[in-house]
Protein: Signal recognition particle protein
Amino acid sequence: ALSEKLKKTLKTLRGESKLTEAHINAAMTDIRIALLEADVNYGVVKQFVERVREKALGQEVWQALSPAQQVVKIVFDEMVELLGGGAASDLAFTSQTPNVILMVGLQGSGKTTSTGKLARFLAQQRKRHPLLVSVDVYRPAARDQLSVIGKAIGIPVYEDPTTDDPFKLARAAYREAQLRGFDTLLVDTAGRLHIDDELMVELAQLKAELHPVETLFVADAMIGQDAVRSATEFHERIGLTGVILSKMDGDARGGAALSIRSMTGQPIKFVGVGEKYDALEPFYPDRIAQRILGMGDVLSLIEKVQQEVDEAEALRLQQRMLENRFTLEDYRAQLRQVGKLGSLDKLLGMLPDGLLPGLNLRLTPQQTQMMQRKLKETEAIINSMTKQEREDHTLLAASASRRRRVARGSGTSVRQVEELLKEFSIMRRMMQQMTRGGLFGGLGGLFG
Ligand code: GDP
Ligand code: MG
Structure:
């Protein structure tokens, strides 16, 4: 699986302190193979990897993140962009009602189900008044299926069992919507197992007559590359405005999303995540990218680090560590950075197992509370020191009366002050031994 491959790649990057061209090339080779294995289209992969490589090479070294995390971040950002950027795209409704939405796709892709789901979504979330119609006159029970769904979700379905003409049905439903004030008409069309001319001509004609605001291609995420091929062909023959990716509740990693978006240039607008009628979600590129990469919540962690950590400060602290000039003052600054990241248990919970050695521990609520308290106490102790003492911790080591004063001032005990001094000395020693610095490297001391 992609995630396994990527994890392996990241493992080789772990422990490196700088992102070099050699790292990037090695990582890109693996990512390329992994994406191909995940059934992403060859051309798409090639283009993707090239763009990631360029970005990675031009990237300044981000000290708060390890090289492995940097690669993940770049790959992730690029993937989100390729999937269409920020939020899910909306539907292009106009004031000229009824607005028609044409649902197209291969047989079994989930058109009829998605028609119901979308109608329900629009009624509930967008306060629209949809009417449904099925023009799938070829399969015997196809129209009944939509009627059953309509009843289940409480949305009217236009029916006329006396005709087998898809155009007549569509026109009559359109008139019905106009007359009765439905602002949206969802047209569920016939599918075939394979693309054939007859169907394409019919769909193109329906489109020409109905002037839909949206022509949505329903793609079965489970069939991977085949879905990509048919999406491309549907787009060439009838012109799509968007895609609904169905059956994403299955094992599909969503590699098809990447290819379809990239090959057709059309946005994925919704994702089907189950057989129930409420199992439709707007498409969020970042969620799918996360799924394709299979990186758990590590990306949320990276985002958070980038938002919250003052990089200049992190750099400064790291420099001081390297030069062995790290003081209690710096220690306090570092603790404040950690404090900004929010609750520690959440932070640690975001890390997937094995990605960051030494940090992949799970804490009990009691341990977390203890750690939070300790962070606060440590800061209080350092606050009670004089500037001189903070700059030179040996002053405190040498004087019991100074330690007593600091303990009193911070509302802690002399023993706690002494413990902190001991930990700080150990940390300084550890830092010197560490080649891999950065925020997390420095944090190691806290957990040691
Ligand atoms: P159509 O031939 O394109 O109209 O496809 P249908 O809407 O009849 O769906 C075919 C099958 O796929 C049905 O059994 C649906 O319940 C199922 N299906 C559709 N969408 C989803 C989905 O998002 N998740 C799952 N698990 N099943 C789905
Ligand atoms: Mg159907």
